[in-house]
């Protein structure tokens, strides 16, 4: 009789409510793969898109969502020589993390840094990797420049605040409530804008002496994009990170012309594939920042596997702050911690 495990399963692209925790066979690693006992897997906005068939990647059905994880290697496939049984690792695997065990290509593994716990490792790779790539590699943010972060209380937003501050920039955090802005302040934002009550463009201009922000980090899209683009300085850089609002904006391109602004796309996943050496360098920089206490991934909830489906639904409704970590090895329970 084959061994079994629990996993959150998506049988067909569609409503998040259709996801179910099921007992399934433990998968075996193929050539170039390892099997990881998943100790922690964190929730990201693409998890809500991928199960609905709205993401640019469509895994073969059935599959488990869960784009990043931390755990221990329990089996290795043919041809894997750089990794050993029992090694503690983290990975951005794209999907598969919301399960007690997951198959991960060996090329997508990183060692869990000494001094870092599993929850933090699972919460680090996508949001902090995206934000560091966006600010350092794409925008080339400089000390003394001003960064405006939209959706600043989300996972990418909080990571961008901490990384920008670590790079020596001044950070303006924009979010939709006083509670979310208080969290942004705790993570190092210098100035705050409540865009549910304040005019975003005018507040940015007031906070920058009419100059505007040199860099804008926008993981939200939607209605605020044009106002934020108008609030970007001469030769400023506008980072298109994602569309958590669900709306892909269409700002007038004359706004780029008028102040020689640059609109820059950020596709971290493909950048990792194209330049793995730079990705490894960035991850070492992030790990060092965490271990030294300069970077602090904010984990708002820790849930058993049974709570993953509802957390994905809340992520889709933009009701999540920081990072939610799922612990597949924990017994089912209803409470949030």
TrEMBL record:
Domain Enoyl reductase (ER) residues, every copy: 14-326
GO MF term set: oxidoreductase activity
UniProt cross-references to Pfam families, sorted A to Z: ADH_N (PF08240), ADH_zinc_N (PF00107)
Name under which the protein is recorded: NADPH2:quinone reductase
CDD domains: QOR1
SUPFAM superfamilies from the UniProt entry: GroES-like, NAD(P)-binding Rossmann-fold domains
Record-annotated membrane-spanning stretches: none
Domain of life: Bacteria
InterPro entries, per database record: ADH-like_C, ADH-like_N, ER, GroES-like_sf, NAD(P)-bd_dom_sf, Zn-ADH-like_protein
